[in-house]
Design goal:
Helices cover about 55% and strands about 15% of the residues. By secondary structure, it is of the alpha+beta class. It has one domain. The longest helix is centred in the N-terminal third of the chain and has 12 residues, at about 35-50. It is elongated and about 50 Å long.
């Protein structure tokens, strides 16, 4: 998405609709959502919090920084479909939010929030994701 497209999205509706969009509602008549960075971060947390199975799918070398298992042990658990157990270990480590913050810094918000293409755009302090 170009800067021109982003500007057009921001300009194409009234202030009330833009505020509703920033508050997490879908942008009127478009396939995009706009979130503040704080709201986007919370939505990423919510996407993974409580889904231990999905947490267990992260790369073993990434996970090992957040739980007390080494890469080889994590890989063994993953090979035997122990994703749920790995996810529980992440949640019990007390480092879930640190892990999600690192995930966001490496991959951005799009993988967790964009059902369309896994990408996101940043505009000022806003995160824009395509949802359809």
């Amino acid at each position: 998405m170009t800067q021109q497209t982003i500007d057009k999205l921001i300009e194409m509706t009234d202030r009330e609709s833009v505020q509703a969009f920033i508050d997490g509602e879908n942008y009127p008549d478009t396939d995009y959502r706009i979130l503040t960075e704080e709201d986007a971060r919370e939505e990423v947390y919510d996407a993974y919090r409580g889904d231990n199975y999905m947490l267990g799918f992260f790369n073993a070398s990434f996970i090992e920084d957040y739980i007390c298992l080494d890469k080889e042990t994590i890989e063994t658990l993953q090979a035997s479909e122990g994703y749920e157990g790995i996810g529980k270990a992440i949640m019990n480590s007390g480092k879930f939010e640190d892990m999600m913050d690192e995930y966001i810094s490496l991959d951005g918000y799009g993988n967790a929030l964009s059902s369309y293409d896994g990408n996101h755009e940043e505009y000022n302090d806003l995160i824009i994701v395509r949802i359809n």
